[in-house]
Amino acid sequence: MKATWDKLEKNWMQFEVEVDASEFSKSIEAAFRKMNQQVTIPGFRRGKAPRAIFERMYGKEALVQEAVEQLLPRAYGQAVEQGQVEPIAQPEIELVQAEEGRPFIFKGKVQVLPEVTLGRLSGFGIEKTVPEVADEQVEEQLNALRERLATLVTDEAGEVVNGSFVVIDFEGFIDGEPFEGGKGEGYTLEIGSGTFIPGFEEGLLGAKAGETRDVNVTFPEEYHAEHLAGKPAVFKVTVQEVKKKELPELNDEFAQQVSPFKTVEELRGDIKNRLTEAAQQNAEREFRNKIVEAVTNDAAVEVPEVMVSDKVHDMIHDFEHQLAQQGFTLEMWHRVTGKTHEDLHKEFGPRAEQAVKTDLVLAAVAKREGLTVSEAEIEAEFDRLLAMYPRQKADIERLRKNAGYRARMREDLLAQKAVEHLVALNTAA
Q1: Which CATH superfamily is 2-111 part of?
Q2: What is the DSSP string of 19-80?
Q3: pLDDT digit string (tens) for 315-344?
Q4: What is the arithmetic mean of pLDDT over 252-261?
């Protein structure tokens, strides 16, 4: 088999593949044996009809077509290996010659991984800075713990203010008529939380328990219920009870209640240590990201649109999964935000392009610096996953045997090695 490859513009390559006539004849003969087993020809058992009889009934073209369908993918794969090219999309193929007794020839073009011209790998002057944890941050964490154990107590003489919790009965009216979903009883609402539509919570400020008010509001134009969007409404609201949040006292008893520590000072120390550790991890992550970003921006590569499109598709899939964890669907998100699928594609586009460029640059760094990933390292990664997710053992073991998944894991591990290498280069004395 002969294969020629020639560069075109914008990461395209054209190719022509020629398979020996004898090889093509073998493929036609194999196609005949296969198809002869699948058809019924009067006077012959399946698979026993002579080829001349088969061709008289079904035509030689059927055999040629079957041979092409079987031979072409294999020949194309061999051509890719010979040319040492890395396609990133399905090829556009045109048959040139497919006749028995003559070489089988096809040609086409395909997009391939672009060439990356690396710039500097170090010398960017990036420094890692770890911010000091302030006492105020520790107090914020302590107050957050107090908030978790807060209780609501009745505010006998208090008026409704921001931060109050009110128990209300309400009913909404549009043009004097009640509307579906506009009524509630014994509903607890935190004033200032923004739970209700704009103007509702503000309309209760200053009210006292037992008071009834008319609260005038206008539903937002983008409100999820289309029959209410943009319409003015009046809510008749009765304040049944006004409550305020009461925080537990910050003392040693509190510390023992929320932690294994006996004193508040011990709890403070632990919180500061954890905040310091988190700050160090964030600083390390930011340092690594800045290095990778600098190396990526200093490199030159023409990012193929097909790779960006694939990355956007992956991002939308991840976004859909995040929505599902919150009880939403992508269709619901479209309705609430008013954004179309095309809007989402445009929104993710720049991030996707930068992500693809980063992946390409890291792969180029790994190649230039001679970084590799061994089979033992891949096996170790699977073992790590098993230790983290023992209940998923069957799925992980199945992926361990999947060649495609192993290839993706190798790429991920190689990218991680490239990042570690860049960090080392930029932290060397």
Answers
A1: Trigger factor ribosome-binding domain (3.30.70.1050)
A2: E-HHHHHHHHHHHHHHHHTTS--TTS-TT-S-HHHHHHHH-HHHHHHHHHHHHHHHHHHHHH
A3: 999 999 999 998 888 988 888 788 888 999
A4: 94
